[in-house]
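Quick one: structure for this chain?
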Amino acid sequence: MTYELSKTPEAEPGPSASARTSHRLRWNKVPEVTAYFWIIKVLCTTVGETAADLLDQRAGLGLTGVSVLMSALLAVVLVVQFRTRAYRAGVYWLAVALISVVGTLISDNLTDNIGVPLETTTTVFAVLLAAVFALWYRRERTLSIHSIDTPSREAYYWLAVLFTFALGTAGGDLVSERMDLGYWLAAVLFALAIAAVGIAHFALGLDAVWSFWTAYILTRPLGASVGDYLSQPAADGGLGFGTVVTSALFLAVILGLVAYLAVTRKDVTGPAGATGPVG
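Got it. Here's what it folds into:
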């Protein structure tokens, strides 16, 4: 998909805006949203799903132990991400991969350990994500990912990403359980939903920012369905590759693509605030 995410106007200069400008970085902290972006995003989601299952089942850590470990690793990587002065492919995508695991575990802990119904978690995460967007826009007057150039905007961005994964997990599980879909059919359903968002954007003029975030949410259950289809036993509707092989395969592809982007810098945006195609 190709979106133009700079349509939302920037804030008018004022005392607080001027103060924030002095702390603004020259370069955007997130990548250009090209086809590479969407491919790596889905792969990270798949690895997040299978890696969480692997640590839970094979390492014997349980949901609580995995949640603590992954949250600690995510905190360390986000500290590194915030300390960088510009987008760095390796750090950024490591943060996405870890946040996909943590977002999934938050939803799974609420459902499996505490017994909160999926209807409730889906609603709560949707409300929390909407609140993040509302606060983000109220403070910054933009939700454009071309303008992640201050600590404040970056904090809102990563908080929104976290809740998209949690919402995608809860909503995806809810749809799969209610419709009793197999892994393959679930993947096709979510892929069609993403295609519908693209059509709505390009053909019907759906706002670019909301098109992006809607597709971003839907990639989570898409990637999870693909991961489950590949890793789960044939008796359960999967191909039986297992979590180890599936995780290793997708991780190798992610590392290859991220290394390619780090060298070629094909996904590096221009100076912060500059407009450009996002897809």
